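name: query_chain
kind: protein
chains: 1
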Amino acid sequence: MVQLQNIDLGKLIAAAGGDPWQINASLQSGRPAQIAELGQAFHNAGQCTAEADNAFVEAYRRFESSWNRDNGDHPINDSAEVQRTIRSLRGQAAQLPKIAVDLENIAASLAEAQRTCGVLISTLEAQLTDIDRRIGAAEELDRTGNLSAADQEAVDQLINSLELQAIDDTKSTLAQLQSIRAGYSDYLQKSLTNLRTDGYDPTAIQG
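structure:
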């Protein structure tokens, strides 16, 4: 979280009506690379039609375009998980490509949400850092004690305006993050339902 000298983050979050950093952290804790690797394993194990193969490739491209490889994420050991599901399906190999596509689309959607939220938070922190600097400069003028009544009023108004701007910027970012989280959550729930229908227990990707 950004470090500010003249803005109280606790009060800012309260005034904005929510914590955008918390929402971002909750999304960033997801592991899209692991989900994508699991999807790839099911894709490799399945009897893929051209349609299923095209759907998987498109989902994988979405994932690849959004996933940040610098986050230290590592593929999971998917062999046991895949073999367990294959055994439980008892020969229904046609379900495996469907599971693969659903998993890859979940990974892509999560990676996209993480990337977008990361950009929004970085933008907000840059805005707040600039506002914090400007508030500090105004307060330094205030501390000189050499201001006329008119100048004092102008400085007070400037500080108040900057504080309101910080709240507005935080509110705006919060609303965007909430929308992204809600969209991903809705998509995830639908996808989990599809996975269960196709015979896969999605517990491994919900932790």
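note: The helical segments are 9-16, 20-28, 32-45, 50-66, 79-89, 95-144, 149-197.
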